[in-house]
Design a protein that fits this description.
Largest sheet: 7 strands, mixed
Order of helices and strands: EEEEEEEEEEE
Number of strands: 11
Structural class: mainly beta
Radius of gyration: 14 Å
Length: 121
């Protein structure tokens, strides 16, 4: 059973910083792409940042220059450093991973339970 567990959300003032972390656990053979998505009230879930297996990254235009995604392959973790936060960054942030389980039946998509980020003005 593979699980993704996020941590690090909370309440911060505009201009502040937060760091989100996500740990993948369970019977994992390999991890491909990992990403962070977010969903604000009344809006669709959107991609915030992605890091592919080779280490390349891509960001939503709205967070470029402010957010940085990174991963630790040895620990099966992915992090999102969020700086210069704005009220419009308020959302539930979800960790996403393409993971190959121990049975080797193919990469599957897994989601974390979400962590709330609230930025006050």
């Amino acid at each position: 059973q593979v699980q993704l567990v996020e941590s690090g959300g909370g309440l911060v003032q505009a201009g502040g910083s937060l760091r989100l972390s996500c740990a993948a656990s369970g019977s994992i053979r390999s991890i491909s792409d990992m990403a962070w998505y977010r969903q604000a009230p009344g809006k669709q879930r959107e991609l915030v940042a992605i890091i592919i297996s080779g280490g390349g990254t891509n960001y939503a235009d709205s967070v470029k220059g402010r957010f940085t995604i990174s991963k630790d392959n040895a620990k099966n973790t992915v992090s999102l450093q969020m700086n210069s936060l704005k009220p419009e960054d308020t959302a539930v942030y979800y960790c996403y991973g393409q993971i190959l389980g121990a049975l080797g039946l193919g990469f599957r998509a897994y989601w974390g339970q979400g962590t709330q980020v609230t930025v006050s003005s």
